[in-house]
Specification:
Blueprint: E1 3-5, H1 8-27, H2 30-35, E2 37-45, E3 53-54, H3 55-65, E4 66-81, E5 85-98, E6 103-118, E7 121-133
Parallel strand pairs: 2-7
Antiparallel strand pairs: 1-4, 2-3, 4-5, 5-6, 6-7
């Protein structure tokens, strides 16, 4: 198996897809969100959901429990495994509202995503998410 650090063009494509997918979450556009993940999508989170969740369980929980208002990705790293698999690591600052408690939240997430080719584009098949509370240092990009 050959592992290549992805080209700048591919890293840029994945970064753009992350932005587009997360904007669909901000917009609450369920069909657009689904288009970015495989039917067999699975997510594992640190503390948010107790067990790995499938696409529909995650979508239901994410859209009924939280509203995402703003986000910014940085530190996106991509490795390509052959022609049809990519692993990306990224950091994403997010702000929103807990719809149950009506409290604002601000978190910084680290994501590891497994992307698979879907024709000419890519979809996320597996995501691992780890989050921590936002700090003042996070107001400065690149920290």
């Amino acid at each position: 198996m050959t592992v290549d650090t992805a080209s700048d063009a591919l890293a840029g494509q994945i970064s753009g897809l992350l932005d587009d997918w997360t904007q669909a979450l901000v917009d609450g556009d369920v069909e657009r969100i689904r288009a970015f993940v495989t039917p067999g999508f699975s997510i594992t989170t640190a503390g948010w959901l107790d067990t790995p969740a499938d696409r529909e369980t995650w979508l239901s929980h994410a859209l009924e429990r939280f509203r995402l208002d703003a986000f910014a990705y940085d530190d996106v790293r991509v490795r390509q495994y052959g022609d049809d698999v990519i692993v990306s690591q990224s950091r994403c600052r997010q702000r929103g509202t807990d719809l149950v408690g009506r409290d604002p939240w601000a978190m910084v997430f680290r994501y590891t995503d497994v992307w698979v080719r879907d024709g000419a584009s890519w979809q996320i098949d597996i995501r691992q998410a780890t989050g921590r509370p936002w700090t003042e240092a996070d107001d400065r990009p690149g920290t």
